[in-house]
Amino acid sequence: SIRFDSRMYREDITGSMAHAAMLGAQHILPSADADAIIDALQGILDDLDSGALAIDPACEDIHMFVEQVLTARIGDLGKKLHTARSRNDQVALDLRLYLKDEIAALQSLVLAVISSLHAQASAHKDTIMPGYTHLQRAQPITFGQQLLAYAMMLERDYGRLADAGRRMDASPIGCCALAGTTYPTDRVFEAQKLGFSAICENSLDGVSDRDFCVELMSACALIMMHLSRLSEELILWSSWEFQFIELDSGFTTGSSIMPQKKNPDMAELCRGKTGRVYGDLIALLTTLKGLPLAYNKDMQEDKEAVFDCVDTTKLCLQIMAPMLATMKAKPENMLLAAQKGFINATDLADYLTKKGVPFRSAYKISGQLVAYCIAHDTVLEQLPLETYKTYSDVFEDDLYIEISLKTCVARRISAGGTGPASVQAQLDSVAAFLAAHQ
Fold first, then answer.
1. Residue 432, number of CB atoms within 10 A of its CB
2. Does the annotation count 134 as an active-site position?
3. N or C, which terminus of the chain has less Cβ within 10 Å?
């Protein structure tokens, strides 16, 4: 497995240094021996970091490689390092240490995407666009609110990563193969030295648990689902049929034969790679579903899946933040689409109802007026008052204020809605979230 677990060399060496320190502190090894092992391990780590030492691909795994180099450098003393531990708890430790750092990296990238969304939403908090249901124009909203919806999703993703990190924060080292050890080890000492807040309380569970991998991968799958939904909208919005936004050329490509094309390839790749992350999650769940306690070699399949899942999610987050930051909105096209979608027809019916027209009649009149506009290639806002009066005498000049899209948006005053005060409250909430976590 060295082909893929070699990326954990820092965690393996750091864990071994803490284990040697514990062996010395507990007088399982003489202090001088423990110190010599720690010094040699630090030298190996320094050499690997600098490139002076290369990982041998012929070794079975990263654990055996480190032990082999250690023994070559300090002789039989290096063979004492493995006292009171097994590769079962060693690999579980390395994986937890590695993924704890990856969670922090993922959270940082999630914050960067939220920050880009917040900046664009702030710039376009008053930009009117059609809101959709069933991919049909439904009601007027602002582009700012639309983007903030994704910011809220990613806030939850950040929280899920934090939750996964909290449950991952228990040290399995000292569980040994499955039943613990006869040596007087101090697992709490070792856990604290490695930055864990607790130890795995059951040695069988400690070596066989991969819930922390599944939970992290589940969080990644949700992140990717949200990025995929956002990517789908970016793809639609940048098409000629919508023309709501323009993506920067750094995130698009041209066609090999059609010079007019500007393909949203990066958004499409984010959308496509979502299936890959889902596949990694399902692969590990399937691997684990029938395993008896404690360790089984099947569990070696955990690392390729979780590494690919995390790598892919990080890559897509790294792309999404600058793609959003450089995106150019086209407010005039959004407004025209909102007007031609007749998404103020509900407000027109409400106007009639307030004038005393029964709702069913108001609904019918509004529908007839929309049909008239479609037939005459116009919009409700531009229809003369004389035309309105042919459908109902209650129409007056105040009608145009009532059906203005700006008015329609402004009157959505409920918390969480698309009204100016509500959108500003959402912007403030996201800004506070960013300030609290950066």
1. 10
2. yes
3. C
